[in-house]
């Protein structure tokens, strides 16, 4: 049988990293096994539906370059692929399940249901309507009494299944409730719709979070009632915010489009989230999508949660940025220059060469180039460098000498500047490193710059370099 996996998001907001990881693992498993990847939109919860969320799902999958075989856009022989368009299908199977004894009509009103709360505030349905006779049920149906259809779960006994990650899972039927399968408005609950759809769409493997580990037996009882073969299950460990808390869509944690807006590359995000709960054989960490497909296997999925570490994702992103061809880097960097202080004032080409190996995300660019237009009072501690034995006093000597050296350059260029500073350092008996460190600080007033003293002087030009050195000399003298 051909492997068929599905990604079935609810259009209730942005694409959370946890959702994207589920899509990724489903995609990798399908492709690694020569199978098919299906997109289904589970929009039965109309109260939480967010306008534009479906388009966001399409846009995200396109951005990360997951090739979808069947979907509301691509079509396919098992459509429609939007649950709200499959209402009649669910109704048909819900009523069929009643006939099979796997479900029953429930006519209980809101007041009665609320009265079922125990001393701990827990609410569990008591199978009251399961005891109704056929005549009583028909009379209520004829009278138009509103109803839902509930699953008829055995009151005792164990139900078990084998998860491909967590092994055998055993659940006591007494701990399960007769959940609603079909609501009074005729719409299915998630618990029912996903079972019907997975069966009718020939889904062979279902990937989802561990929060479904204990409820999966309910789904399998539905399969059993229909006489269907359930799919294989791959439950994924949680992604943690820290040691105690899970990342939460509810609290706005880890939104995919937010990371794109921060200047992360889609391929770096995908690479990183692949490692949140899965480890390939060997020490490799940087993997493009083709490599991920080749290496992915269920044996590498962890049973324990993984802490989301943005520092590591930044590191991975920097590796991808370094490997971009110059044309793509320039294209991706331009919007960040355009929103910085250098917007429209310089040729960005020189900046590209300096920054490509020095940024972790594209959002670093505005801060890296800020010194070009923003220069003023700064802390003298910036001159401190233990290894070079440099401080503000050394800096003052270096800046005065550097100013004299630059004034003597007739044809100003980076090469000329480098030679002049090296020669001047030798003349005054100063280490070249002390000279260059001090001049970089004196030219920029910044702790981090996209290059050293020579590159910064080259960008500023002779006149602006002299003006800034003069300012920095007076600043040091006023504070020492």
What's a quick, concise take on this entry?
This protein has 480 residues and is mostly helical.
Description of the molecule:
This protein has 480 residues and is mainly α. α7 (216-226) links the parallel β8 (205-209) and β9 (232-236). The chain has a three-stranded antiparallel sheet. The chain has a two-stranded parallel sheet with strand order 1-2. It has a two-stranded antiparallel sheet with strand order 5-6. α12 (326-338) packs across α13 and α17 (432-444) crosses α18. The chain is elongated. The chain contains 18 helices and eleven strands. It folds into three domains: 1-71 and 237-323, 3-Layer(aba) Sandwich (Rossmann fold), CATH 3.40.50; 86-236, HUPs (Rossmann fold, 3-Layer(aba) Sandwich); 328-479, Arc Repressor Mutant, subunit A, CATH 1.10.10.350. The mean pLDDT is 93. The chain has helices at 17-32, 53-63, 87-100, 110-114, 134-142, 190-200, 216-226, 256-261, 266-274, 289-295, 310-322, 326-338, 348-355, 365-369, 392-407, 414-427, 432-444, 453-479, and strands at 4-7, 36-39, 103-106, 148-151, 158-163, 167-172, 180-182, 205-209, 232-236, 239-240, 306-307. The longest helix has 27 residues, at 453-479.
Distance between the termini: 79 Å
For CATH, the homologous superfamily of the largest domain is named as HUPs
Write down how many β-strands occur, each being a DSSP E stretch of 2 or more residues. 11
Largest sheet: 3 strands, antiparallel
Remind me, CATH topology of the largest domain?
A: Rossmann fold
Count up the domains. 3
Average pLDDT rating: 93
CATH A-level architecture of the largest domain: 3-Layer(aba) Sandwich
- SS summary, helix count: 18
Strand content: 5-15%
Order of helices and strands: EHEHHEHHEEEEHEHEEHHHEHHHHHHHH
Poorly predicted tracts of residues: none
Q: Would you tell me the structural class of the helices and strands?
A: mainly alpha
Could you give the order of strands across the largest sheet?
3-4-7
Q: What would you call the shape?
A: elongated
